[in-house]
Fold this sequence. Notes:
The protein is an alpha+beta fold and 132 residues long. It folds into two domains: 2-46; 53-125, CATH 2.40.50.140. The protein is 41% helix and 26% strand. It has helices spanning 2-6, 8-11, 15-18, 21-46, 53-57, 116-125, and strands at 61-68, 71-76, 79-84, 94-101, 104-109. A five-stranded mixed beta barrel has the order 1-2-3-5-4. The longest helix has 26 residues, at 21-46. The chain is rod-shaped and about 80 Å long. Residues 114-132 have low confidence and may be disordered.
Amino acid sequence: MCHLILLLPIIALPVFWLWSWPIAVSVYAAVLLFSGWTYMYAMFAMRRPVVTGVEYTLHSRGVVVDDAPEGLRVRVNSEYWPAECDRPLHTGDAIRVVGREGLTLIVEPLSAPDAPNAAAGHNASRGAVPHL
């Protein structure tokens, strides 16, 4: 169907054989303007950034929802994804997506694990009282 819309100026050429010159020119101009608008709209649509899927999650922030031995699961942009990380992560840790391997996200923690605030927040999220 989209190919017919792109060929519309060529398909509309017979109007010059069917109607008088002033009517044919006005009809063909309308077809040409519609085709030009369609081409322009299609070009803008193709240049828009990706807003869904794995490509959209790259460089996004999220949170670890499950740190089970079977695999890490994270929530990024209200979606749940399997993930891998080279450092240990725990439920509730903030992460950033740095890549992907198939449908598995490669993540890294947002804060360094040896930072005092990160350690206090991690212990507090596990139910332990932070040392003051």
